[in-house]
């Protein structure tokens, strides 16, 4: 081994991880690839590592909480833009979340889907603190009520997507109020809600003209009339889910199909061909030309 190689090896052996530039190298190019569990352990190694992890957390704009995460780690973070709570839905409560929402007023995306231990206070806190919110997931949050949804509508008018799947407390009045306030909605799920009727769908259609995706799966009280209104007022609609909507028929869906809207139920003839194929083992040829 040459003299130059020995000198390089000696210099390399004296180089430590913390000698690298923190904000230019370690934070954006190394720490971002470490699982959160490792970050928690790493900050216990020394005071320097603790300071490094705090710098990383304070500048972290997207945070996916897991069961091993303690919300106290977020107490100094004031620049979060995205927060997913799905992985800790079985333990997170209002107590942990309210301070996080209060300090992170730039949050644009929050997913609280399935968080059974939260209450309406968390949704009210989001609406009051995070007025720039654009995307919100509340699927299977049965604690969402009309009052908290109205608060959201009053303060988060820039909302672009919201998932209200199986929010069973909600009725037409709250959904109509949301539609009148959040005119920029592009994606909305009202699936698995027996309280939703044509009134909600028509109000959404007339106010949210930029709507692109609507999920009405299992909304048993939705009928053809509101689907026709949807076709009339929402020219940008790309996807419609009406599976298990037994009062919605092909007469209202056909105009949307002709606009190439993706619908999750097949036309009657196609369904019949599938049944025949199951019975006969092959699909019979049918000439549809007149």
From TrEMBL:
Q: Which InterPro entries match?
A: FBXL15_LRR, Leu-rich_rpt_Cys-con_subtyp, LRR_dom_sf
Leader sequence residues: none
Provide GO CC annotations from the record: cytoplasm; SCF ubiquitin ligase complex
Q: Pfam families, alphabetically? A: DUF7885
Q: Where in the cell is it found?
A: Cytoplasm
According to the UniProt entry, the coiled-coil residues are: none
Q: Which UniProt keywords apply?
A: Cytoplasm, Leucine-rich repeat, Repeat, Ubl conjugation pathway
List the GO biological process terms: SCF-dependent proteasomal ubiquitin-dependent protein catabolic process
* Residue intervals of the F-box/LRR-repeat protein 15-like leucin rich repeat domain: 13-230
Q: Main site of residence?
A: cytoplasm
The biological pathway it contributes to is: Protein modification; protein ubiquitination
Name the Gene3D superfamilies on file. Answer: Ribonuclease Inhibitor (3.80.10.10)
Quaternary structure?
Answer: Part of the SCF (SKP1-CUL1-F-box) E3 ubiquitin-protein ligase complex SCF(FBXL15).
Q: What does this protein do?
A: Substrate recognition component of a SCF (SKP1-CUL1-F-box protein) E3 ubiquitin-protein ligase complex which mediates the ubiquitination and subsequent proteasomal degradation of target proteins. Acts as a positive regulator of the BMP signaling pathway. Required for dorsal/ventral pattern formation.
Q: Which family does it belong to?
A: Belongs to the FBXL15 family.
**Protein name, please?**
F-box/LRR-repeat protein 15
